Structure formats: C-alpha cells, structure tokens
Amino acid sequence: MAKRMLRAGTGGDIARSPVVTGRPSRRQAVLRFDPMPDRVEPCLALLSPRAPVGPEWAFEVKWDGYRLAVHIERGKVRILTRGGHDWTSRFPTIAHDALEMGLDSAILDGEAVVLDERGASDFGALQRALGGRGGKKSAAGAILYAFDLLYLDGRDLRALTLDERRDLLVAAIKPHGSIRMSEELDAEGAAFLKLACELGLEGIIAKRRDAPYRSGRGGDWLKIKCVQSETFLILGYEPSSAALGGIGRLLLAARRGDGLAHVGSVGTGFTTKTASELKKTLRSLEIEKPAIPLKAKGMVWVQPILPAEIAFRGLTDDGNLRHASYKGLREDADQSEVFQLDED
Fold first, then answer.
1. N or C, which end of the chain is more exposed by having fewer CB within 10 Å?
2. b or e along 218-257 (b: 16 or more beta carbons within 10 Å of the residue's beta carbon)?
C-alpha cells in the first residue's frame, strides 16, 4: 500500500513550537506540565455512505477489533477498553512492547486485532483468542494498530491538529513488535474504498487533518464500510440437530426509540465451537415468551441482553437484515452501541 502522506510544512510548524517538540527540556517542563488524564473518552467515527472528497481528509484502513487506549506512565502500562475497563492482563504482548518503546509518559489510541492469513483483521479470531464473551484468556498474538497520540511526556496533545499528532506519533512509537502504525494512505477516498472492498476489508476511516481530538461522535472522523457490521441483540434461537453446534439461526433485534424492533435472523458464520459455546450461554438466559411481540415456531426465547456483532449487506424494505453473517459476541467492556433504527 502507498506510504503515509505528510503535508508540506507540517514538520516545520511542529518544530517551531516549544509545546509540541518531542521530549520537553527541563526549562519547558518547569514552564508547562499537563496532568496525565486517568482516562480519555474516545473520538468515534460517524457512519457515512460515501468517502468525503478534498485534501482536508486523511484516510486509513478500518480495523475490525477492540478499541484500546494504552497508558504509559512511570514505567507502568495500563490498557483500557473503550468502556474504561482495565484489560492490561489480556494483552500482555502489547503491554510489554509499550514499555519497550522507552517513553516516559504517553497515551496511544488504537485498535487491537488478530490478523488472518491474508493480513486482514479478523474479529472472530480475536474473540476466540480472548476465550469468547466473558472469557479470561489473554490474546498474546494480538497486534495494536496505533492511529493517534493523545499525551506525550507531560504534554496533552488533544488540542493539536490530527496532522501534528500523527507526526509526533510516528516519531514516538517507532513500530515495535506488536505495536504498529495504522498507516495513512495517499489516495482519493473513493478509490481507496474500492480497493479496500476488493481486498475483502471491512472499510476505511476518513479524518479531518486540521481537527483536534474531540471525544464522542462529532463528525471529525467518518467510517465508510464495504460490508456493514453492527451490533444487535439476540431475541432467541432455533435449535437444530443438523446445524453446527446445534443452532439453526438467531433472531435479532435493533433499538428503535426506547424499545426494540425485530430485524430478522442470522444462520451463517458459526463454527461448531462458537455455536456450541453460544448455545450454552443462551440456555442460561431462556425465558417463556419473546421480549417483544413475535410469532415464530420452534424458537427458544432468551433475555435480550447478549450483543452480537453481525455483518450484513443492508436492510430489506420490511426492515430485515440482508445476507447476515454472525461474527461473534461483543464484550460488555467494549460498550459497542446496539444498532439504532429510525423511528417510524
């Protein structure tokens, strides 16, 4: 893939600023020190139907894993999930390699992934490495693709532009072992999206070059997907003696207003192991009647609390998922949002 594109003059602008040069001198440390945040709410990407156009946008691959913040301070590392849960022990290699970078203090923003044989991120493989939903295994083979730097050696960098933060990130991490740069691609958004889809990737991310780091989903970052992948709640399952792991299909729901709405079912994407483990979990959540009014024969109904990640090609006219495929369960610690339908 093409190398990351740097705007002319960016490095010079950073070098002239005493606030944003690499490691602060003793004099600078006396003049200014920003307390290191205990946690930063992540900047989230807003779903967009098409890639934006213009030189003000930078583009990256959309990685399919768990969003993590890696905090390095005084020779110690904390790895926090999007929901603020401490998962340092579950990513031991990333934690080790973060210390090996030799930074005094830093907060890296990135995505932990497990790669398949093609080099693409595989959410299901990451879930299996962690032992499935509620599992306690460590994903020693996971890789962190770092794409932002929020704090470095006594400096809070969130007010800087994306270009400035990226330059400091490139200088700071010097890709090491399990920690790699999420490269910025020198390409037009539409052409890059087409290539990503041809390679079987999930999609791309577009980011405003001149934007500071703002928590929440404000539109500075956009996600454009080849195949939609969203989180839905499981309403019930159809037992099957012929299907892998004994699950014929899952009935799914999205949020609509303050309630839930049925969005169809998924019957592919399972392995014998993932379906067997899922069925065991679902059995512990069985209820007599569906959580929302539904008529379906042969279904076992469950409490609608399990968030499943589902890939699909869109919605039919009657609101059902098209070509849905099961990818795995989301952890509560990940706090991925359940798909929201427009209200009627």
1. C
2. eebbbbbbbebbbbbbbbbbbeeeebbbbbbbbbbbbbbe
- The answer to whether the CB of 229 falls within 8 A of the CB of 64 is yes
Rounded-to-integer distance, Cα 245 and Cα 157, Å: 49
pLDDT at 33 (0 to 100): 87
Extract the tokens encoding 38.
């205990």
**Surface-to-core class of residue 328, CB atoms within 10 Å of its CB (0-12 exposed, 13-18 middle, 19+ buried):** buried
pTM for the whole thing? 0.74
Type of residue numbered 217: R
pLDDT on residue 9: 33
Contact criterion met (CB below 8 Å) for 247 and 270? yes
Sketch out the chain's domains with CATH numbers.
Answer: 39-225 (3.30.470.30), 228-341 (2.40.50.140)
DSSP per-residue letters across 181-236: E-PPB-S-HHHHHHHHHHTT--EEEEEETT----SB--SSEEEEESSEEEEEEEEE
Q: Which residues contact 27 (CB under 8 A, 6 or more apart)?
A: none
The set of long-range contacts for 135-140, using a CB threshold of 8 Å and a minimum separation of 24, is: 136/90, 137/90, 138/89, 138/90, 138/91, 138/92, 139/90, 139/91, 139/112, 139/114, 140/92, 140/93
Helix (H) or strand (E) holding 68: strand 66-73
pLDDT for 202 equals: 86
H/E stretch holding 146: strand 143-152
Provide the pLDDT for residue 42.
96
Q: Collect the ranges in the chain with pLDDT lower than 70.
A: 1-32, 133-134, 175-176, 333-335, 344
- Specify the pLDDT at position 285: 96
Tokens, residue 306: 């399990």
